């Protein structure tokens, strides 16, 4: 590294530590996308990742430059195998060749712990993709077994939250009926191989879709009255935790109660188009800052209070070449020059909703009644709003553009 560049990044890291030191998080995960032409080199990204306390990184490919740059850093990696590879990966020989080149060659210097095969495949309504998903996952796992790597590297896939038919109340969480058969086979694979279930969850889209009905404080982990699941009496004061527990219940309904759930993507944009309500630096600061603070506490959701959350914040950088609405290019915690997109400082733990998400009292009942928020639609006695319009979200996996439908049918509140 040239001396001047070293001084430049040294000054950046110093400023970052001033901004972020109060909210350093243990076991924090970060999504590292690079659909841009102005990002720092992978070597210069290493200290930036470490400055925020991130110990896990998720890539959408297996970029050798990134994996080599993070060698001997101790940072854990999830690497991606894009949707465009699914058909090829059905061939065990091709899968083994890919694993050799993109995973084995970097071990053990770079700590690769997981391969996610395909991104949100089941919500594309593409039978060719969905029919190739499980065979591709099986071939990649077989390759790991043949190479003696299956004990240290797992195989999974990432799903959109729209695989759920219902999500409110969390206790009624259920998968779409048309996906149950396909999901059941995939879940059996997870159980047999010990791999996690990955879900991408964005409360931002719920708020953007209906800001008059969805309470902003509830989606930003800010203090609010919260809601109570009538079936379990569990109290929820943020939407993300309610979504996660809905996934837990959907899994339990199919007999997979103990399957670990990881949130492979969640975040909030700091800028958006005129119709992207809520995409502001202040809201992004609150969402990501409060979320990271909660992650540092190592507490679980109301349904699983003793389970550590495995969450990957989206994303490390703003990416100027991403297609779609303005928000897509402004999810980063950092600007391309490596400086913070906004401060993530938090005044105090007591101001963060979710710091007491589990219930007290007996039999799972809260210590005191919590009234339904004023913004609850009067037409719904259970306090939720059905949002049906799909929200398009675009993501690159590998080299092919994927139009990801993050929100096709969610039940909120």
From TrEMBL:
| E.C. number(s) listed in UniProt | 3.2.1.39
Going by the UniProt record, its keywords in alphabetical order are: Glycosidase, Hydrolase, Membrane, Signal, Transmembrane, Transmembrane helix
Biased composition, class Low complexity, residue ranges:
347-360
An MF annotation (GO) of this entry? glucan endo-1,3-beta-D-glucosidase activity
Can you tell me where the transmembrane regions are? 6-25
- What domain of life does the native source organism fall in? Eukaryota
| InterPro entries per UniProt | GH (IPR017853), Glyco_hydro_17 (IPR000490), Glyco_hydro_17_plant (IPR044965)
The catalysed reaction is: Hydrolysis of (1->3)-beta-D-glucosidic linkages in (1->3)-beta-D-glucans
Does the keyword field hold Signal?
Answer: yes
The UniProt annotation puts the region (Disordered) at: 345-384
Task: Tell me the Gene Ontology biological-process terms attached to this UniProt entry.
Answer: carbohydrate metabolic process
Specify one Pfam family. Answer: Glyco_hydro_17
Q: Which family does it belong to?
A: Belongs to the glycosyl hydrolase 17 family.
Q: What is the official name of this protein in its record?
A: glucan endo-1,3-beta-D-glucosidase
Give the species this sequence originates from: Gossypium mustelinum
């Amino acid at each position: 590294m040239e001396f001047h560049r070293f001084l430049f990044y040294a000054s950046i890291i110093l400023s970052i530590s001033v901004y972020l030191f109060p909210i350093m998080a243990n076991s924090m995960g970060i999504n590292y996308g690079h659909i841009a032409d102005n990002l720092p080199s992978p070597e210069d990204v290493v200290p930036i990742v470490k400055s925020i306390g991130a110990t896990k990184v998720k890539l959408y490919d297996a970029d050798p430059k990134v994996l080599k740059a993070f060698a001997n850093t101790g940072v854990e990696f999830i690497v991606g195998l894009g949707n465009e590879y699914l058909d090829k990966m059905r061939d065990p020989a091709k899968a083994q060749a890919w694993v050799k080149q993109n995973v084995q060659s970097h071990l053990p210097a770079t700590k690769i712990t997981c391969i996610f095969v395909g991104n949100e495949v089941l919500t594309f309504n593409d039978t060719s993709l969905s029919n190739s998903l499980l065979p591709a996952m099986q071939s990649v796992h077989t390759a790991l077994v043949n190479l003696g790597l299956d004990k240290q590297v797992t195989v999974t896939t990432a799903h959109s939250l729209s695989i759920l038919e219902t999500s409110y109340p969390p206790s009624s969480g259920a998968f779409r009926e048309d996906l149950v058969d396909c999901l059941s086979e995939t879940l059996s694979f997870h159980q047999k191989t010990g791999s996690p279930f990955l879900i991408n969850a964005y409360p931002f889209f719920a708020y953007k879709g209906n800001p008059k009905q969805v309470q902003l404080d509830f989606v930003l982990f800010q203090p609010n009255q919260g809601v109570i699941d009538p079936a379990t009496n569990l109290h929820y004061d943020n939407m993300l935790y309610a979504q996660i527990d809905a996934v837990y219940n959907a899994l339990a309904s199919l007999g997979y109660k103990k399957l670990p759930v990881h949130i492979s993507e969640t975040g909030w944009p700091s800028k958006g188009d005129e119709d992207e309500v809520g995409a502001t630096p202040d809201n992004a600061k609150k969402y990501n800052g409060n979320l990271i603070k909660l992650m540092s506490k190592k507490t679980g959701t109301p349904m699983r209070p003793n389970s550590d959350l495995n969450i990957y914040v989206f994303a490390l950088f703003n990416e100027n070449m991403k297609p779609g609405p303005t928000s897509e290019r402004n999810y980063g915690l950092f600007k391309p020059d490596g400086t913070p997109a906004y401060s993530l400082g938090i005044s105090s733990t007591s101001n963060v909703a979710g710091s007491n998400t589990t219930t007290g009292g007996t039999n799972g009942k809260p210590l005191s009644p919590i009234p339904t928020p004023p913004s609850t639609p009067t037409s719904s006695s259970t306090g939720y709003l059905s949002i049906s319009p799909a929200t398009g979200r675009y993501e690159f996996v590998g080299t092919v553009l994927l139009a990801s439908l993050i929100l096709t049918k969610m039940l909120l509140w």
